[in-house]
Amino acid sequence: MALKSTIFKADLQIADMDRQYYDGHMLTIARHPSETDERMMVRILAFVLHASEALTFGKGISADDEPDVWLKDLTGAIDLWIEVGQPDEKRILKACGRSNHVIIYSYSSMSNIWWNQIANKVDRAKNLSVFNLPAATSQSLAKLAQRNMQLQCTIQDGQVWINGDGESLQIDLQTLKVPATAAK
To answer: N or C: which end of the chain has fewer CB within 10 A?
Structure first.
């Protein structure tokens, strides 16, 4: 008998001062049986960082042709494709061909090894951004996971603070790659 996804609910209150975005989102998240709390919470972090009314979760881990999070325009074209983890170069380059912008949020103690092996292979992707979440931070983020979560998220000057269940966590992402136009 196949295991079913576990359903999580997240009430996000987002104050993104960098983008002047202030809104609340009630999310229903299906956590695949093979997905950890850590990975799911990094998906939620990716949502927080790019929050908009049109941003949605894809099938992610259970589908080869959809990202973890994405933003489509009114015609169905993909504006933003977000991957969580350490995808291979074939998946990254395919996503870069299908979307205006691809962002990867890697996490785990093995992220630097993954990036060192893949960086040259994806260097030609001009619409790719890659950020790393330190392993200790992603593990702390995982501790906030609950079936019903209330998270207050503040973003200012590139720093992220997430408060939930009496805990406060500061998140500083490491930039591994950004498009040349964004780096200026």
So the answer is: N
HSE, CB side, 13 Å, CA atoms: give it for residue 65: 0
> How far apart are the C-alpha atoms of 69 and 130, rounded to whole Å?
15
- Tell me: the pLDDT tens digits for 64-117? 779 999 999 999 999 999 999 999 999 999 999 999 999 999 998 899 999 999
| Single-letter code of the amino acid located at 91 | R
The residues, ordered by sequence, that sit 6+ positions from 59 with a Cβ below 8 Å of its Cβ are: 66
Domains along the chain with CATH numbers: 6-177 (3.10.640.10)
In this structure, what DSSP letter does residue 57 have? E
Which helix (DSSP H) or strand (DSSP E) does residue 53 occupy? none
Q: Is 60 left (phi over 0), alpha (psi -120 to 50) or beta?
A: left
Task: State the distance between the two ends of the chain, measured CA to CA, in whole angstroms.
Answer: 53
